[in-house]
Amino acid sequence: MAAAFVRTLKRDYVRVNPRPDAQTVIAQLPAWIDHYNEVNPHRALGYRSPREFIATTREAPSAN
């Protein structure tokens, strides 16, 4: 799971943003991770972001 996340970060964020040095990449990581969790749609989650999916799941009434 972690390997897939790292591949996605590299493919969708690192390769398309300026990265003149490691310090620049480290400074950009929090924004990339926020985007990944809040905006980026995920096929496995019905094309919702992880935060959208969690919010929907928490709001759903339990089946008990």
Structural class: mainly alpha
Instruction: Based on Cα principal axes, name the global outline.
Output: elongated
By DSSP, the count of extended strands is: 0
- H/E series: HHH
Measured as a percent range, the helix fraction is 55-70%
Specify the number of helices: 3
Q: Which consecutive residue ranges, at least 5 long each, have pLDDT under 50?
A: none
Whole-number average pLDDT?
Answer: 88
Percent of residues in beta strands: under 5%
Determine the N-to-C terminus distance: 31 Å
Could you explain how this protein is built, in words?
This protein is mostly helical and 64 residues long. The chain is built from three helices and no strands. It has helices spanning 2-12, 22-38, 50-59. The longest helix has 17 residues, at 22-38. The radius of gyration is 15 Å and the shape is elongated. The N and C termini lie far apart (31 Å). The mean pLDDT is 88.
Secondary-structure map:
Layout: H1 2-12, H2 22-38, H3 50-59
Key phrases:
mainly alpha, 0% strand, elongated
Quick structural gist:
This protein has three helices and no strands. With 64 residues, it is mainly α.
